[in-house]
Amino acid sequence: MGKLVNYQITHLPISTMHPLDTPVWSALTTCQADVALGSQIARRFPPQMAAHGALAELTAEAYEALSRISLEPVGLFFPGPPQLPAGWMITRHIRMFQMVHERKRVPQIQLAPEARIVELSENDIAGMSGIYALTRPGRTIAPRIQQLGPFMGVRIEGKLIAMGGLRLHVPGYREITTVATHPDHLSRGYATALVAALMQRIYDAGESPFLHVRDDNTRAMQIYERLGFAKRMQFDYGVCRQCSL
């Protein structure tokens, strides 16, 4: 894939952009509009499903609308370093690459005989939460994240040791998210196998996979590139909240 996309979303009408240029807004106004909270200028997922929100434009009016549905922190994608209006603050800020796979072919990944890839249900949220806490210290998984898309896991002797699932859904694309392996079981190909299984599920539905990864997570990016993902664009991501809360 060629040069990374770098749009200034304050100057381009959203209707003229690719759905992945503003992935959260695209999801909340199309395929996942049925769960969206908000209005025509500011929307978010229910916090129990995902922290993400989005604005139609980066304006004071849109932030005011967002404030009415954000009594809890909200995660926003920005086209550059975040600049918030008065009354808002950032509690967590990272830079991320968006990576897309459009080769249509998924590599075959072999696991050890004792490892099984399985579908996860809502009954698995405790095990998922444990892995999430170990791999993302200080953060908690959204308890209803599975309502946005299916999750799969790797089990060994009945114990969940790796997981990953689908979250954002925009026209033609599904996001792979929350890929994590228990620290005691790293470097055995479990995450790679899970991502490949999720990719196949997406392609079987006639769509293409994409994902977001921290720009300093070199190990994960190498895994995704070996699977055929390519960097498409770079975002700043900020978890934001109102100063008065």
Characterization of this structure:
The chain is of the alpha+beta class. It folds into two domains: 14-95 and 235-242, Aminopeptidase; 100-234, Gcn5-related N-acetyltransferase (GNAT) (Aminopeptidase, 3-Layer(aba) Sandwich). 20% of the residues lie in helices and 32% in strands. The chain is built from five helices and eleven strands. The protein has helices spanning 23-29, 60-67, 125-135, 190-204, 218-226; strands at residues 37-38, 42-44, 53-55, 74-78, 88-100, 115-120, 151-156, 159-170, 173-181, 208-214, 230-242. The strands form two sheets. The protein has an eight-stranded mixed sheet, sandwiched between helices. The longest helix has 15 residues, at 190-204. The relative contact order is 0.21. The model is unreliable at 1-13 (pLDDT under 50).
Quick structural gist:
The protein has 245 residues and is an alpha+beta fold. The protein is built from 5 helices and 11 strands, in the order αβββαβββαβββαβαβ. The chain is globular.
Keywords:
245 residues, alpha+beta, Aminopeptidase, 2 domains, eight-stranded mixed sheet, three-stranded antiparallel sheet, 32% strand, globular, disordered N terminus
Give the neighbour order of strands across the main sheet.
4-11-5-10-9-8-7-6
**DSSP helix fraction:** 10-25%
CATH homologous superfamily of the largest domain - what is it? Gcn5-related N-acetyltransferase (GNAT)
Through-space gap between termini: 43 Å
**CATH topology (fold) name of the largest domain:** Aminopeptidase
